[in-house]
Fold these 3 entries.
Entry 1:
Amino acid sequence: MTYLASAGKRPGRARHLLFAALPAAAVLTIAACTPAGTGGSSDSAEPSSSSSELAAGDEMGDTIKIGYIAPATGTLAGFTDGDPYMLSYVREQFADGITIDGVTYPVEIIDRDSASDAAKAGELAQELITDEQVDLLMATSTPETVNPVIAQCEANAVPCLTANAPWQAVIFGAGFGPDNPMKWTHHFFFGIEGFGDVDPLAWDQIDTNKKVGVLWPNDSDGGAFRDPDTGYTPYAEAAGYTIVDPGAYEDGTQDFTSIIQTFKDNDVEIIAGIPIPPDFVTFWTQAAQQGFHPKVATIGKALFFPTTVPSIPDDLGQGLAFATWWGPTFPYQSSFDDLTPQQWIDGFEASPEGEGLVWNQATPLNLSLFEVAKVGLEASGDPHDKAAVSASFDDINMMTLGGQIDFTSGPFPGIATIPTAMGQWQKDDAGEWEWVVVDAGDVPDLPVDRPLDILAWS
Amino acid sequence: MVVVNALVQGILLGGVFAMAALGLSIAFGILRVVNLAHGEIMTVGAYIAAIALSRFGVSVWVSLLVAVPLLGLAGYWVQRAMLQRALRIGELAPLLVTFGIAIIIPNVLIELFTTNKQAIPTGGLAVSSISLVEGVNVGVLPLITMAVAVALIAATQLYLSKTRNGRYMRAAADDWETLRLMGVDHRRVYALAMAMAFGIAALAGVFFGMRQGGVTPYDGQLAVLFAFEAVIIGGLGSLWGTLAGGIVLGVSQTLAGVVSPELPLLVGNLVFLAVLMFRPTGIVQSKVAV
């Protein structure tokens, strides 16, 4: 995300300048009615923290402070637009505190906005650790947010819980490895295997010449996919497919003519990759213009955002497939109130915070962070004993709204992976875009709606 | 044939760059204001088109009739109420004001419309193409974009050279104090020029949006980079220079792409740097304004 990352510096200043430029009354109005992304998060602690009240008669412990850092504004805000609803739901769940061995502890959740800026995420982590003295720090959405927070937690010996970033980018990207494991951090998400295991299952459903053209940009994700040993190629080759890699184009490329030419010259019939949304739309539009018509396309990242596909001209998004980790039919259940994915989506869409928004797959995992946090804190015996809290996460193997989180059998200490399935976009009878499950992939007991459709080029 | 194709696609890509650069060129050539918010003004133009379509069912082309005058009006008052005042503080102050605007706009757009992409559908237009010869397909939308860019530059050129207001603008660029002595309110002339710059930016933004199928709050940041490069390559303040600059930038990107997909943006930036070092006045000699 080369250009996104550099661009992400501006919103940090943005808020300050915006605030400085407006009269105080207007600032208050804006802070009070933030519909998307910024709700509840602000630079001062008061409006964003909520202490729980205690029932009389309990033995009372000191308040447990949980820090939560997410990109609520800026270029990554699409990951967190469901967070205002999620946080108000979580605060309700923690309203009566947590009872551990007969002692009830009030819980304070302190949420902070990284403004999609890696440097700011690190500063916030430091502030939460030293000034607020949090007992547990959490971070979510992309390595740009998660890695700097993990670095602070590891340096200051504070328990850390993170999600929504490919685990390879967290482990290798932050300099951890088999010889240097994370000591204080637990992270859950899928990695390259989530694409590499599942994409071929979609390709197998269509008769092709097994040549896969890939769009791996010159950013951290693209580099991880291109790695010949730990990347994507071994998965494709194991399934009998050949990779055609035109090279590492820059994010923000305006013309894909030469890449399309390379695909044509190599008779590519399958497209896979992890382009950023605008690049994929440019590529796909130009492919149509220049008469390049692959049979299957499995695209990560760009199709994660629910508004990308409807914006592709001339309904060319019809039939695009992607590795997915969460949807209304996934057989998951929250440890809060036994909520199912469909119930969660219904609740979100009916809430004032969800107005005008489309549910996305990131929010449920953000809720899972709090579910895991609660169980981990309860199991620790003493929530203010940092070593005990961190150690208690090692034994967690639980069902959450975002899926089964299992730290006992991950690929690395402190890593839990979640399974993926294959979804395909289609327009329903009412003309609304939706995606359906076309292969259950690694997700156990996931109902498959229909087989994969071949891409129809008119 | 691969090279010919890249050349053709590059020239057409230049059309969209030139259109984005034109408003920037006017703002600099006449007002000497480097408008850092240019990309964000484009974004707002595209948002107006997207909202007109999704809320009121107005087609993109009709929405231009709203977006262009609306932002023109905005440009007029931004110049009169903010930039002209800022100029009293110092020469750099207007630059900082536009920087502030550039930061405020995406954040306001997020508050109003979320970060979700707002679609600007054009039906089959964006993907339809004409086959020139075997292996060279020309997209219809890029072709229209190019035609509109050329027409726009020609019209602006004519306006500046033939009309009374156009002459005032050129005069204001050269020597506003003398213009004022002649009884013309230079502030009004400046504001009109900024209105033009904003209106053209809105138009360019809509075409950028159509190209990408829609618009998100931060799209302006990349657009303004290409616009700046096209202006510098073509020559600051030169109108036809923006077209030349856009085409040079477009062609250098697509030709570099033939060599290797890593190169387009890098080579585009290198060409920009080379022009800045070896021919800082740009490749086209300025005939207007400067």
Entry 2:
Amino acid sequence: MALNSVLRLISVLMVMLVVGLIGFRISSSRLKKKGIEPEKAVPQAKLQAKKYSLIAAFLYMVAMVSVAGLFM
Amino acid sequence: MKMMYGMLMALTPAALYAIYAYRLQALFLILTGVISAVAAEAIFQKLTGKKITVKDGSAAITGLLLSLAVSVSTPLYALGISAVFGIIAGKQLLGGLGKNLFNPAMFGRLFYLFVFPDSILPWRQPVDLTTAATPLEILRETGSTAGVSILDQFLGFIPGTIGEISSLMLLIGFAYLVYRRFVRWRIPASAFATVLVLAIIAGQNPLFHFFAGSLMLGACFMATDPMTSPRFEKGQIIFGIGIGLIIMSMRWWGWQTPGEYVFTEGTTFAVLTMNLFVPYLNKKFKPSRS
């Protein structure tokens, strides 16, 4: 497996991880403000965070493929 | 489950033709895609303590669709890793079948295009396996569809991904899905209608566009995934029109990647982009009870 491919693989996983973590914090604080109990808020926030991380991965990959000269 | 196995049946003609056209390498690609997807789903569900659902056939479909959407030059490890990513990120991360945001096969394919762009080339001619340009690359280079035989495109004597080359085999499979009522036919119908109108406006042969690239495979088998396509009629039509518009704009303008692969086909981007609008389309076009 080429080094370029390894770097691309790691980069997409990092984007998902970072956006997921940020998304979780934002979602859980929003749900807290709405007054939802933490027991219910955590699974909801986790699901939201996963959605954000998937959308970020999609946008990141499309952007990188379309402006590939920046990265490839 | 009936529908899933119906889908596998429908993809069989295209898979068999791929094996005929590209010999053992196509068989290995198909086996790698299916086994990787099924194993990834089973292992992920086992590790997360969920019920193992590989018998429903959905993971096998994802693996098969993904393997049909790669070129014969693809290394097996690249396909295997892409199938694992498609299943875990595209499907299992949000809770499995029915909860996924994106079509897992398409998500895996985007990952493949992003991580392994070097492995796409060279395109190979079916049967004799010589290196050749795809019809869409010819369109890009010459600006015309005249140099490509429509009959060759229809029968499957043009280079492309292993499952997209024979429109005839894909249409046989799609006809079976329509006959069994396993498919939301309005989506491919509106996608093809959009392509038809745009091709006529541009003065190009619509049949060329129907049979070129992965429009047939994507619109008939991937965009119609019941989990990631709109439930209601109007939503399905808009979904299909969106796919047709994005595909044609990609074919005309595409994305130029300096020194590397030129993306002349946009089915992956079209289906995934339209997947994002599915919750909105379902909400907007939900029939009111009166």
Entry 3:
Amino acid sequence: MNITFDISAIVAVLATLMMITRPSAVHALLYLTVSLLAAALVFFVLGAPFAAALEVIIYAGAIMVLFVFVIMMLNIGEAAAALESTWLQPSTWIGPSVLALLLAIELGSLAATGSLAHPAGAVVNAQAVGIALVGPYMLAVEIASFLLLAALVAAFHLGRAVMRED
Amino acid sequence: MLSSVRTLWYTFLHLFQRNVTVPYPEQMPYLAPRTRGRIILSRDPDGEERCVSCYLCAVACPVDCISLQKTEDEGRWYPEFFRINFSRCIFCGFCEEACPTYAIQLTPDFEMSEYIRQNLVYEKEDLLISGTGKYPDYSFYRVAGLAIPGKDKGEAEGERKPIDIRSLMP
Amino acid sequence: MSNPNDIIPGLLNIILGLAFLMMMAALLTWVERRLLGFLQDRPGPNRAGPSGSLQVVADGIKLLFKQDWIPPFADPGVFVLAPAIAMVTVMLAIAVIPATPAIGIIGNLNVGLLFFLAMSGLGVYSVVLAGWSSNNKFSLLGGVRAAAQMVSYEVFMGLSLVGVVMLSGSFNLTDIVHSQRHLWYVVPQFIGFVIFFMGGIAETHRLPFDLPEGESELGAGFHTEYSGMKFGMFFVGEYIGIMLVSAMTTVLFLGGWYGPFLPPFMWFGIKTGLLVAFFILLRAALPRPRYDQFMAFGWKLLLPLTLINILVTGALMLAGPVPS
């Protein structure tokens, strides 16, 4: 179990690194997808199979596909890739990297002190997730649904506006 | 939606119908005698070539796949060579319709496959058959007025004797 | 799992299962062409081997010996990755299906249903990436269509299964089959059954919903540039996808391995086989819808229907003595 966790965690970190450093947008998205899949495996190992499945279905299976879809439609060529390469200067990435390093040190110190020694908790099944969503987190769910409804109406409106011009 | 379901049902019923196709090399389809297939040159009932090299077939051919050269032998006209390029032929049958002597005919044979394209150019020896084809009794020289050895003018079927224009007799 | 004695039979199970699956998929190519022939009043491929069954071998040899060409204008890495994704996702998804309580690779996974949905969601990548990496406008159009179509129909496919999950109270496929001992879910969940099957057709982009391929307008759509075994992988992936959707429908709606007289495995095979035959019948009978009609059909008809289905199922479960 621990080996599975370690491997998927390393894969997640490496894939995320590769995602940041790729000049080609589609390649970067592919690495991001791999990173999400690795994160899903981490969830699974930690005892949350429902969250793991949702991670793959929603993030990797739907949202990332839409990202790929949009990038395909934009038809980003060599020029954009070259521009992306110029952005990968040390001055650009040094700040976020330092912050990320701080987080990594924090995580490492927690692991060293033994606070993360037993990551595998009780298995959280779908029923528990559902009860939590409509119980203590009811307000958050309602607010999120308002937001989604607003987004839906906005998308519908924008789509109609384009149709009318034709 | 309902029409889609109906379509599905009718298509399903086709599972139990007889095949309309036949397994071809084992089970040969019936081909009518008039089928336009490989072209042959026929002979008249006496075994002589019917072709009189009138060039009408070559003129009628829309793809110019027929070429021939006329020659004469004791009054009879023959093709010196007669060449059909079957890689060009479209089997339209115009040559057969144009032929005044029933010499060129299309047969129901269509199985002409070659690995080498040149082999599809048929010479006169390849085209000539020993029989009369679709018109067993017809012989052009027997009904034509042309004089050939063994048949003088006026001896053809249904032909009157030639009139001696210097004679005063009726 | 940590015991090494358990690993070897497990691995053997996986390898034999996948080998069996590959053989069935290859055989299915022949079965489809033969059945399609009969449905169209012709015999279909009947030359190679006894009544044409070795046609599979001939096709396989042909595909293996074709030049494995990567177009110079393509993105080589992604171009190779795409067919691999196509095969891997369907094979992983089919692993969770329990043919019987004993036969199956990981049939007892406690989120089996979600795993299936996740894998079919990842399957979109194969088509989309194939379309993008080919760097060809027809392929790209196929990929764009595939992305929109599969993401949309995944929504209805997932929602149509909610009724089943509510009735059985489990994501575990084995438990779902067990709860159908008395009544197959095709009866109380008929709308869910129809919508799931349609979603399955759209997910495997089979005819009549093969808009990503659309031979008549897009060449061959997303796999226009593919040749040799890479094309073969798409091909085999598609056929495993057919079996996957058929087997999944059997498990979820048609009572899995339950049935009188015959052994359980036979019943599972018969039901799955009939559904596969129905896939082929659909291909023979129905024309491809126009793209906008297809999307409108999904969002304007199937989505409300699935939502109403969930609502009615939930209301009945709360109100009446529905067996759960």
